Amino acid sequence: MHFFIVDLFKQLQKEYCKFKELNKYQRIIKLFRGQLMSKKEIESLKSDFYNQANKLIFANGFFSTTQNKKAAQFLAGTPTDSVNNDDQHVVLEIEVHVPSTKLPLANISHLSANEAEEEILVAPGALFLLRNVEYNEDDSVWYIKLTLINEDHERLINSQYKSVKMSNTVERQLVEVGHLLLKDTNDVNRLRTYYNLIQQHLCLSKDLYLVGLGWIAYENNNNPLALKLQHDALQAYQKNAQSNQQALIASIYQCVGTVHRRSKEYDLALQYFNLAIEQLSTDLLMDRFILIDCKINIACIIKLKGDFHLAWEKCKELAIMSSNQTGHFDFRHIYNKIASTDSNDNSRTDFDLDYCYNWEKFVDFCADNISGYYDIISNAYKKIANIYFYKKSDDLAVELLKKAVEVKMKYQPNDVYFIAFCINDIVKYYKNKKYYDMVVCFYQQLIEVNMKVSEEGEDSLCIIRTYIDIADTYHEKIELEHAVELYKAAIKLLVAKEKTSHLLISCYAKMADVYYEYGTLNLALNSYAKAIEMLESNRSDEMSTKKCCYEKMAIIHEKKGNSEQASVCRQKAIETTLSLDQFSTSFNVQTTEKKNSTTDTQSCLLIDNQQKANGKRERRCPIVDLLKQGYSF
């Protein structure tokens, strides 16, 4: 069995290389998986999402997904109207960052019994970040949004796990393992047994038990007991005066400082954090985790006391320290922890607008004194914007995204992916508001950035997609002439590109729609015919496009009085519909057979986590001007 699993993994690695090459122009792809889940599992996930930051979920076996959302919805089963049933229909929506993903995943549709299912197989050990759990009443289906991450993802991996890896003494490592044990089992008696076994078999001090329980008392919000236990442990270690206990004593001071910070006794907290740092300064095998954690707490307290300047200086000190600890600390996470802290951070269970405002205020201060930390500041703005979006404060979110884009455009214009992400969210907001001029303005900004950094120049697929997006915007805006110009520009560029036929088809079909609305019926017919000519494959989505094109051509021929041609087009539309129905039936039969054969593994993932106005508007098009003046086609 081992031989077959190893061979399968190697084959998956080879397919993964092909997969990355085919998707090299796509930074993010989405995968889907349909399955049944118990209501209890879903409630547990919802609770974890709302009460636990950065909930991670682990898949311990080969994991089957699809790029076809409809296939996933079908595999989830026939939806019911009741959200109270024990078995719930679930679609997992998985975001994959293709350039950075290390875990092998591959398109195995050519090896599958049902190629139309577009199956993507993910290797064992997949780690997912839980991003959302929501029930769609229209579909009667739960949608669980996940992001595939790497196991060495700095910001998301448990801090206690890092602490164990970085502790330089056995005693410190054992305390951290005990902490993890309690978090995992919530069984204090088992923890006592753990420490007793340590004392009996490792000949270590029983006072280690006091340090561990002191941290547990802190975790359980029992401040007086935490202080008593740590003071008792400190007296014992000072009495024994062992020379190799600096890290453990520093851990005691760290815990006491953390308790005082929670009680808002900031001066006392600073005193103990500094004592911990002083204790570590005499330790040749300095415990970097305690050192950095104490410095983070000091910076947080200084920020809470209102000294933004000194807090920012402490942040920059931590940036230097974390840069020397590759693989253990992410300064972006450290900075946001400090920037977001407020007087209620110990009891906070939700992000309110005041909390976000105070966070933004500190980031604004740092942005005025940016000192080279452009990436940190822009990412902080984006993070706060995401919270504003979550709180339905879209106006505030967009202003933050504009700040993020401004920082990047000024200092890091080559970070096109980040800028594009922000601009796409801004554009989505303005589209919903029907502020089309703002949509075009931000798309123009995106094109200019891509023009500067893309090796392909105006031939860049990202730029071509943006042209199409702008053309769609002008179509919505009823500026049809500008829409046609941009569709033509995109088509001219796409003709020279390989593996972009779906974009060409889409451009021809959309341009035909514009011609039809413009009243130029012959041009509309030609464009529809061109789209149909390119529709050679039998994919279901392309057959649907072909059917729509034939139906619209039939309407145009009727308007022109060509009844015979209209009849031919209608007949072809019917034939395409029959082919599409036949395809769907075949697909459903095959996926039903597959689903029935895998019902016992359905839950294998969840191991742990303006209406159109009449007439035309005579306005200049800035993008068309840009194309005509600087970038001829």
From TrEMBL:
TPR repeats lie at residues 250-283, 505-538. Keywords: Repeat, TPR repeat. The keyword GTP-binding does not apply. PROSITE patterns: TPR, TR_MART. The keyword Repeat applies. InterPro entries: TPR-like_helical_dom_sf, TPR_rpt. Gene3D superfamilies: Tetratricopeptide repeat domain, Toxin ADP-ribosyltransferase, Chain A, domain 1. This is Uncharacterized protein. It comes from Didymodactylos carnosus. The lineage of its organism: Eukaryota, Metazoa, Spiralia, Gnathifera, Rotifera.
